[in-house]
C-alpha cells in the first residue's frame, strides 16, 4: 500500500524539499513575522516586503502592549493611579518607592564621586610636593657639585619605582628580573600588572521618569479618577475584570482601552475618552465634572500614554520609543 508521508522540515510552507527555494529565500529577507496570507509569496504577484515571513520585522499583538490603566513599572492595573504631565501612568505606592530609592542611590553616587575628587586632589597635591622636594634636592646637589648618580644614591630606594620585578609565592622566589625592560618581559608579576583606573562621572542629581527621562517631582503626580464600568463592584473586583471591562468614559459610556484612548482633566482628575475631549470638552474648554465648571487650558488636558493595539493604523510608533535609563530597584 501507499506509505504515509512524514512531515518535512518546511512543514509550515507545505513542502518537503530539503532546500530553500528562491521564493522562500526572498520571503525570509523581508516583511513581518507572518505567513504569506494577504498577498504574500504563496499568491500570484506576492509582495515579499509587506508580507514576508522573515525575522527582519515583527508586528506585536495586543498582548504585548501595556493596558491603559496599568502601572508603567509593574505593568499591572493600578490600585491608586497617578499620572505625570507627559501622560505616564504609575501606581502611587510604586512610584513613591522608586523616587525614594532613586534619591538614596543618587546620594551614594554623589558620595563616591566626592571621595574620588578628594582623592584626586590629594594625589595632585602630593605629586606637586614631591616635585618641589626633588627640585630642592637638585639645587642643593648642584651647589655641592654632586652628579646625578651621587644624588640618586642619596635617595632611599623605592621598590615600586625600580626597574626590576620579583615574583614570589608563599615566601619562595619564582622569578627575579632585574633588567631595565622588566615591565615588558615580566608583565605578569603582580607589581607590574597594569591597573585600570575607573573614573566616576558626576551623578545627575535629578530624579527622572524611567519612561520619558523627564524630571519627576511629587507635586506633578496627579491622582487619576477612573469611572468604573460597574459601580456595584469593589476596587479589587474591578481590577480583576478584563482590560475592556474595567473602566468607561463618563460621557460616552464606552469602555476605555488602548483602542479607545483616554485623556486626563487636571482640575477634576476625571478620565474621559479622547474622542469626547475632541467633540465635547474642547468646544467650550471647561471641565464639566467640577462644581462650578472650571475653565481649561491646553496643559490641563493630558492624554494618557498608549502603547498600541497590535494594529499599525492604531499604533503610534513615536510613543513606543523609550529613552534608556538606569532604573534602580526594578
Plain-language structure description:
The chain has 330 residues and is α+β, with helices and mostly antiparallel strands. Helices cover 28% and strands 11% of the residues. It has seven helices and twelve strands. The strands form five sheets. It has a three-stranded antiparallel β-sheet. It has a three-stranded antiparallel β-sheet with strand order 9-8-12. Strands 3-4 form a two-stranded antiparallel sheet. It is elongated. The relative contact order is 0.11. Mean pLDDT is 75; it is low at 1-11, 31-45, 51-57, 159-164, 169-174 and 322-330.
Question: How are the SSEs placed, and which strands pair?
Answer:
Blueprint (H helix, E strand, L loop, with lengths): L21 H8 L18 H4 L29 E3 L5 E3 H53 L3 H7 L10 E5 L2 E6 L4 H4 L36 E2 L3 E2 L6 H5 L7 E2 L13 E4 L5 E3 H11 L1 E2 L6 E2 L5 E3 L27
Antiparallel strand pairs: 1-2, 1-5, 3-4, 6-7, 8-9, 8-12, 10-11
Brief account:
By secondary structure, this protein is of the alpha+beta class. The protein has helices spanning 22-29, 48-51, 92-144, 148-154, 182-185, 235-239, 274-284, and strands at 81-83, 89-91, 165-169, 172-177, 222-223, 227-228, 247-248, 262-265, 271-273, 286-287, 294-295, 301-303. The protein is elongated.
Rg: 35 Å
The end-to-end distance, rounded to whole angstroms, is 63 Å
Number of helices: 7
Biggest sheet details: 3 strands, antiparallel
Number of strands: 12
The main sheet orders its strands as 2-1-5
Task: Estimate the helix proportion, in percent.
Answer: 25-40%
Mean pLDDT: 75
Q: How does the helix and strand content classify structurally?
A: alpha+beta
pLDDT under 50 segments (min length 5)? 1-11, 31-45, 51-57, 159-164, 169-174, 322-330
What portion of residues belong to β-strands?
A: 5-15%
Query: Per the principal axes of the C-alpha atoms, what is the gross shape?
Result: elongated
Q: What is the string of helix and strand elements?
A: HHEEHHEEHEEHEEEHEEE
